Automatic annotation (TrEMBL):
Domain of life: Bacteria
Any one GO molecular function term: ATP binding
Keyword line: ATP-binding, Nucleotide-binding
Domain (Orc1-like AAA ATPase) ranges: 17-131
Species for this entry: Novosphingobium album (ex Liu et al. 2023)
Protein name in the entry: ATP-binding protein
Pfam families given in the database record: AAA_16 (PF13191)
InterPro entries noted in UniProt: AAA_16
Amino acid sequence: MRPVTKDDRSDLPSRPLLERDVPLAALGRVLDSARKGRGGTVFVREEAGIGKSSLLRTFAQKCGPVLLLWGVCDAFATAQVLGPLFDMADAFDEHLRNLLSKRAAANVLFTALLAMVRRARASVVMVVEDAP
């Protein structure tokens, strides 16, 4: 899946999500906290096929002005290292894209990613989906 930014959410679903008000509210509270300068991490964990991706896509539609970064882990036996970052690369700054293209060490990449997030003018929502 390609990265999705605040101005490009055309590939997100438009059908309503049923019985997900509680988890959507919880995600909204974490985003509100992040907008106040207190970032957070949320792990969405359930059995396969229960609707985790749909929940996150619905949240992405409703979260307002954010930089939304979305990446998916490969389902291959030997997955591409840091594959989700490559999915998000179009939304990265030039410095981070260059590091990624040069296959820089993970600690260098994540330091640059954190710096980019800190400089972002909007809140950043980053989704890394497990392999489908």
